[in-house]
Structure formats: structure tokens, C-alpha cells
Amino acid sequence: MKPGLYLRLRREKAGYTLRELAYQFASPPTVDAETAERMLAAAEIEQAPLDASAQMRLALFVPFDRAIYGHLIEGLPAASVCGTCGCSWHDPCRVANSPCAWANPQETLCTACAVRKAA
Ligand SMILES: [Zn+2]
Ligand SMILES: [Zn+2]
């Protein structure tokens, strides 16, 4: 998985449009919403990955695993990530108060997404 796709899946799972997230992410006067939106969009289209401080800020609003993101940026083997929602070991989905699990042996689809696909 590409790092930008990972961020997009995590953002969508958190229920934000890019613009909504940019407004949360912005912290005037240092970073206005427009700048934040450009930065987040550039990261999602694999143009410019988020730096460490941007990752820390993003994690306040979007649950994502910075270790996984870092590995994806560097092209190193990363922990398993659901290809549909971007959940992983530290950021599982909640289904009826239980965390999701892997629905396939390749660990590319979680049980929450498998149920949604079957429905
Ligand atoms: Zn999933
Ligand atoms: Zn899941």
C-alpha cells in the first residue's frame, strides 16, 4: 500500500472530507485551512509525505499508525493494513464493541469490511 492511500483510507474511515479535516488540522496563524488542505492533499496523492509534526497533528483527528505510515514512506515492510479501510493492529474497527480481526490469511481485509462487502 502507498502511504498516501493509507492516509486517505484512514481519513475516510474517520468520516472527514479533505476540507473538513483541513479545517480541524489548521492552527492559525501558523497554518491556515487552505495551506493545511494543500498539504494533506499532496500527501494523499503521494506528492509530499507529511513530516513528523504534521503526522502528530493529524493523529489528533484521524486514528492512524505512524510506524506503518513511516514504513510505507520508506518502502519498508509494514504491518498488515486492511486494504479497504486502512485499519491495523493498533487501530482496529469496532463492531458491536469488539475489535475487527483479519478476514483472510493475507491480512489485507478486516472482518468489519468483509461483512460490509457481503451485505
Ligand atoms: Zn477494513
Ligand atoms: Zn477493521
Layout of secondary structure:
Elements: H1 3-14, H2 18-25, H3 33-44, H4 52-58, H5 66-74, E1 94-95, E2 98-99, H6 111-118
Antiparallel strand pairs: 1-2
SSE order, as H and E? HHHHHEEH
Annotated CATH architecture of the largest domain: Orthogonal Bundle
Percent of residues in helices comes to: 40-55%
- Strand fraction: under 5%
| Backbone CA Rg | 15 Å
Largest sheet: 2 strands, antiparallel
Number of domains: 2
Q: Helix count?
A: 6
Q: Low-confidence stretches at least 5 residues in length (pLDDT < 50)? A: none
CATH domain class of the largest domain: Mainly Alpha
Spatial gap, N to C terminus: 25 Å
What is the mean predicted local confidence, pLDDT? 96
Overall description:
With 119 residues, this protein is mainly α. The protein folds into two domains: 1-79, 434 Repressor (Amino-terminal Domain); 80-119, no CATH class. The chain is built from six helices and two strands; from the N terminus they run H-H-H-H-H-E-E-H. The protein has helices at residues 3-14, 18-25, 33-44, 52-58, 66-74, 111-118, and strands spanning 94-95, 98-99. Strands 1-2 form a two-stranded antiparallel ribbon. A hairpin with a 2-residue loop joins strand 1 (94-95) and strand 2. One zinc ion binds at residues 82, 85, 87, 92-93, 100, 110, 112.
Short note summarizing the structure:
The protein contains 6 helices and 2 strands; from the N terminus they run αααααββα. It is mostly helical.
List keywords for this structure.
6 helices, 2 strands, binds zinc ion, 2 domains, mainly alpha, 119 residues, two-stranded antiparallel ribbon, 434 Repressor (Amino-terminal Domain), single chain
